[in-house]
Amino acid sequence: MTARITAVALMLVFASATAFAQTGNNQTPTGAPQQQQPAKPEAKPEEPPVYVEQVVVTASKVEQQLVNAPATVSVVTADVLAATPATNYAEFFRAVPGVNLSQTSARDFNITMRGAASTLATSTLALLDGRSLYLDFFGFVAWDLLPVNPNELKQIEVIRGPASAVWGANAMNGVVNFISKTPRELNGNSATITFGAFGRDIDGGQQLGNGTLFGINATHARAVNDRWAYKLSAGGYTSEPFARPTGLIPNGTGTRFPDFANSGTTQPKLDVRVDYDADRYKLVFAGGYSGTDGMFHTGLGPLDATGVGVGYGTMRYSRGGLKLNVFTNILRADAVGLLAIGANGRPTSYRFDTQTFDVETGNVNLIGTRNVLSYGGNVRYNSFDMSIAPRGDRRTELGAYIQDEIFLHDKVRLNVGARFDKFDSIEAPVFSPRATLILKPQANHALRLSYNKAFRSPSLINNYLEATIFNQLDLALINPAFAALPGRAFAFPVRAVGNESLKEESTESFEVGYTGIINDRATVSAAVYFTTNKDEIFFTQTGRYRATAPPPNWVQTFSPGGMPILPLTSILGILEVLPPACATAVCTTGGVPSDFSYRNLGTTRNKGFELGIDGAASQAVNLFANYSWQAQPEPDFALSEINLPPTHRFNVGVNLNTSRFLGNASASYVDEAFFQDVLDARFAGRTKAYTQVNGSFGVKFARERATAAIKVINLLDEDIQSHIFGDILKRQVIGEFRVTF
Q1: What pairs with residue 453 in β-bridges?
Q2: Structure confidence by residue, pLDDT tens digits, 460-494
Q3: Which residues contact 209 (CB under 8 A, 6 or more apart)?
Q4: ∠ CA(81), CA(84), CA(86), 5° rounding?
Q5: What are the structural domains of the chain?
Q6: What's the pTM?
């Protein structure tokens, strides 16, 4: 089966490339209607180009054509954003090669480049027009806190691979850069209403009936004169909860999926921007608020968050190659741990209060005719007030980079650069070099040989976590005779603490990549990579209970007659010899966990390759196909400590955008994966392989000022679970009406 999938994927990708190559600029694609030619060639109106080469800025912080970028970059364009069926940004990344996605609730999803996804993906940096969306206190991205709507975006640029050489900490496996349209590009008014329903009846499980979703947003933008322009956008989205999995977790331990009250989400957004274009410089001021609530899945289990909100402000100054960016993010949140029970027997409450202030500057200089030199740096200050990490209250970061693009020959380029970062939570400065040799046999073709080193700093939670929760063990797993007792759940305290001695985790990557433009029709890409991750940070068991050392405040389980089922020492003796839940040195003799903490566990090697094609069959039709293969990671510690990514991923689709119609159809195959990042080994397990088919169709009318569309996610209505602890995604049917005036 695996061999057939790989063969089919390769044939489809390269067959598509051949088809594009055979379609020239002056030829009509196969299957397209023939149009009558005018009597005089000079009378034919000028048509827009069939294919426009993409320009990116994220790879090196310098604007350049995609084919010349020193890293592997994918671009999600505005046309794709308009037609793709989506209720969140996760669906836009699903078709990007090398990206692994896990969606665990109606609001919670995580993405990881060239690695296994998780409940808290910590190695991907996200930006909106240069403002970091990365939440330093937990070390992840809450993607639903993006304050703008998809119709306000010009494009999304995705770096697949390390990028700390220019972006610094946390760009360890990739970068997602959201680039918004300017007020002048948005000039006018628009409004969008989204409404829909989704299934929640699981095969052999919950029968909850349909859930509903609703969204609305509006944008007002005006170019006041040749210098001033502004934009105001506001909106919101709400969804009922998805279905939860039921029954036994498929891992052979007999553990059931926990039964807790699931939550949907409500997400308000507000964004204000003012641009001033002078003759020699440009100023941008922006600010607003984005909020969310609902389920956040973590290593301690699910948190039901309420009132999560980020207020932000930013100022950007640019003059030629010189740039100065200043921003602040202020976050407030409250949450309840649904599986983390405190000593009072109630769910544990958490409070999060963080403030981030960042100043960044950069410049680009042309030196002679052969060197483009770019350099810059930033200073960031974070303050924290969190109940889950009371000893951590601040963090300061400094960073500086330099990069040189050297034109050795018209067919040979060398991009070299490095960055130094110093965190007050890390003992020594961190050095992140990059070197990329680009060979260009022709102007539209580039072969890249690259080396990168990148890192992620320990988050505040990694360093200063302090939490004690009560875990539970079903005594029927020890002796089936206990199954008849009403009080068979044996509760025991577990302590989770941070580790102030953590090192930064880092990755070294070697990559051979190719990007080419075929006959001005399509972009073809290929990449083979080998990475070595060192000192990876894992939340792991560090202690176990013994019969000779009972825990304090132990909670006993009683039979209906009020007598203990077993003496405390007997229960502890049984628990002491249970199979081990981890493979660190302190846990090898078995037992139920008493302590968890963060550890740098060692070295993991990864390798894989990606193939893709994305191009124009005509002025209105865009096609894409890509395939990703990733080998099973090779750690020098226990394999059970890490998540395992899907080996095969394959995406194929078509996008339509004419003056009358728009549409999208896509299919994504994702192989099985393994997850172990929630609580202990009882909750680990594999997800099944699945194929997700999406589709949409819309009609434009009123001189293209109005669009009515219907969009469907998971058209085949599979029970899709992308994380072993996550919700079940069923078919979603969405109606959308958009108007501009």
Answers
A1: 508
A2: 999 999 887 776 666 666 566 666 655 556 666 77
A3: 200, 201
A4: 95
A5: 2-23+48-740 (2.40.170.20)
A6: 0.87
